[in-house]
Specification:
elongated; about 20% helix; Immunoglobulin-like; alpha/beta; about 675 residues
Length: about 675
């Protein structure tokens, strides 16, 4: 909004000193002490500390008006411009503290009103900034913050939160459906988007049907540009207004929790955009970012990089991470672009970066920030997940801080994704030369708590959809996609799939469109979805497939070097080793009959999964229910089974007790 005046007001003293929220320091009172309608303690009651700045910073409704607080250590004056004062700078001044925080109570402002901060810089310019701690914002392209009272929501998800607290997610099934809310479905009534409340019921019904355990929302933090998909965040404390209000988003999370689904959000602490109303040069100087572009500007994304070594910035980001778990009950965060935070030379040539104090390329401040953030989240919200998108060999990403790690719960296995997709894109006739693309992962598979991602990044920027990336004719492309998903479900690691992939979408993802749901009327596409449904349910039901997902005792190769037949076979085991599954993958279109493998137990091996099933769109070949073991040694075992391997397929067998009247050998 244009300024109505640009004349400097009364000059005020300012000092560039850190503010301390760790105790009672006289900077900001924590006077809000209400309870929500369910009788539980309100999140804004307790005194604020370095991870709960949202309790006092920003705009908070009081009995007499609204109390505003903003950090602008190098400003000469700060006033509130709003619907309540005709957007006139200088009418509602804020008072400064010696810690660079400007605060004050403003009459005539009420919940729902729009506002910004008018900041006088050291050179006399008057700039308008949205509130960094805003709980709500205008719908883009407008950029004002909105006063919102977050107290008083009636949460009814206690059962889910108790389950979350008591669950060891490393031993539990985690199968995530990644969603971009704006392009999952589009309204047909002329509206641009569905509301969070509408999405809640539609997404819940669909996700429960397909069998995922969690959803992961691409960034719903406020962002000005649709084409950034939310990854250029300007509002770190408010859900985007594209889909409704803060209360609508709380309804969304509460609804999914009531139906037993976890909600994860994408969170972006690695960089922020250069938009004038945002954090960039917030008080006319670089306070959130580094002033030196060799440290503070990201060349790939044309964004600014946070100054993690500045206490106020680290507390701002830690508070944001805590805010979503506290105020919105989300079940975890997926932290975007962690590698760009860890390395000072990320995407930079020699001379374009500044080494750390030891002469190295590690960003020591970012490391400290991530460790403190993860320690805080896991300590205060038991059962909440923190998941790193980290694409390098940085050690200990998902290991405890006490052991020298970064403290994340899990890490995306980008190596698995790249190697597996490269293999699946190869012409089948050449695959036997590249079997190590699939087997190499076993070398490092248990060095981290890995999650196997097939995310939005794999179906954008000209990469095409997963189905279109598969090699071969159309029949082989569908078979290869089923093979890809089957490998994902049967290999160790938690799971993530991006929306649309489960129906074998032909087109690359378009954030301005929606999933091509009409494809479900075609049996081959619906067959892919049926297989994903069964894959999720099998993964969730069978302890052998999830209890040791990230532990070496849950996996054993039987065949990993059969380049002639291009076949791999492995065993999955439960935590107590008592339940097992034998899994075989035929990676070529040629069926393989009487393929003998060693097994550790005598008995009948029931075929419980076959990605070539006719129900999934396959050829319908298999083992007619299963195979009996024989006392014939193979692969280091005393017993073995002879199986039929369908083309481009994964088959899974579960050993059962041998009936008394069954033949001893088959």
């Amino acid at each position: 909004m244009p300024m109505t005046s640009d004349q400097p007001g009364e000059r005020r003293d300012w000092r560039r000193l850190p503010f301390d929220m760790s105790g009672s320091n006289g900077m900001l009172p924590s006077e809000v002490t209400s309870q929500d309608s369910s009788g539980s303690r309100c999140t804004f009651d307790a005194p604020a500390d370095g991870s709960t700045l949202y309790r006092v910073m920003g705009a908070h409704v009081t009995d007499g008006g609204v109390r505003f607080s903003v950090w602008a250590p190098n400003a000469c004056e700060v006033s509130v411009i709003s619907d309540g004062n005709g957007w006139t700078p200088g009418r509602d001044f804020l008072n400064s503290s010696d810690r660079g925080v400007w605060s004050g109570e403003v009459d005539g402002v009420t919940a729902g009103m729009r506002y910004k901060f008018a900041i006088r810089t050291q050179d006399g310019q008057l700039i308008e900034k949205a509130d960094p701690f805003a709980f709500a914002s205008e719908l883009r392209p407008s950029t004002a913050s909105i006063v919102w009272n977050l107290r008083g929501y009636n949460w009814t998800d206690d059962d889910w939160l108790e389950k979350r607290r008591s669950t060891d997610w490393l031993r539990a099934p985690v199968s995530i459906y990644e969603i971009h809310p704006g392009s999952w479905r589009r309204p047909q009534d002329g509206r641009e988007f569905f509301n969070y409340r509408e999405l809640a019921s539609a997404i819940t019904e669909y996700v429960l049907e397909v069998g995922y355990t969690h959803i992961q929302l691409m960034p719903v933090t406020e962002h000005p540009f649709d084409g950034s998909w939310g990854y250029q965040t300007t509002g770190y404390f408010g859900p985007t207004s594209r889909f409704g209000s803060p209360d609508d988003f709380r309804y969304f999370v509460n609804y999914l929790h009531r139906h037993g689904l976890g909600v994860l959000i994408d969170w972006v602490p690695g960089h922020f955009p250069t938009d004038d109303h945002g954090l960039a040069r917030f008080d006319g100087t670089a306070i959130y970012e580094h002033a030196d572009p060799r440290q503070g500007f990201h060349p790939d994304w044309n964004t600014y990089i946070f100054n993690y070594g500045r206490r106020e910035v680290a507390e701002f980001l830690r508070s944001s991470a805590r805010f979503w778990c506290d105020v919105y009950h989300v079940d975890g965060i997926r932290v975007d672009a962690v590698a760009s935070m860890l390395y000072l030379d990320y995407s930079r040539d020699s001379g374009e970066w500044i080494p750390n104090q030891h002469g190295g390329r590690e960003n020591l401040d970012a490391i400290q920030f991530l460790r403190q953030m993860n320690t805080m989240l896991h300590g205060e919200f038991p059962g909440v997940l923190s998941i790193a998108e980290e694409s390098t060999t940085w050690p200990g990403v998902s290991r405890p801080v006490s052991a020298g790690g970064l403290g994340f719960t899990m890490k995306w296995d980008m190596g698995w994704m790249n190697d597996t997709l490269r293999f699946m894109q190869r012409d089948c006739i050449h695959r036997h030369w590249h079997l190590n693309d699939l087997t190499f992962r076993a070398v490092y598979a248990f060095t981290e708590n890995f999650l196997l991602p097939l995310s939005h990044d794999e179906v954008v920027h000209g990469k095409q959809s997963l189905l279109a990336q598969m090699s071969g004719d159309e029949w082989q492309q569908f078979a290869n996609l089923r093979l890809l998903y089957a490998l994902q479900y049967m290999m160790p690691g938690k799971k993530l799939q991006f929306m649309g992939g489960e129906i074998g979408q032909w087109n690359e993802w378009d954030h301005d469109g929606e999933i091509d749901w009409l494809l479900r009327s075609h049996d081959r596409h619906e067959g892919i979805r049926r297989m994903v449904c069964d894959g999720n349910r099998l993964y969730t039901k069978e302890p052998a497939l999830h209890e040791a997902d990230v532990f070496s005792e849950g996996f054993q190769w039987i065949v990993g070097d059969d380049t002639e037949n291009c076949v791999i076979v492995w065993i999955r085991k439960s935590q107590d080793q008592q339940q097992q599954m034998v899994i075989a993958a035929n990676l070529t279109p040629a069926p393989c009959s009487e393929y003998r493998i060693g097994v550790s137990k005598a008995g009948f091996y029931r075929e419980i999964f076959n990605s070539d099933a006719e129900w999934y769109g396959g050829s319908g070949t298999g083992n007619q229910g299963g195979c009996y073991s024989a006392e014939m040694s193979s692969h280091g075992f005393d017993h073995s089974i002879s199986m039929f391997l369908p083309p481009l397929a994964v088959v899974a067998f579960k050993p059962v007790l041998l009936p008394k009247d069954a033949p001893a050998n088959r």
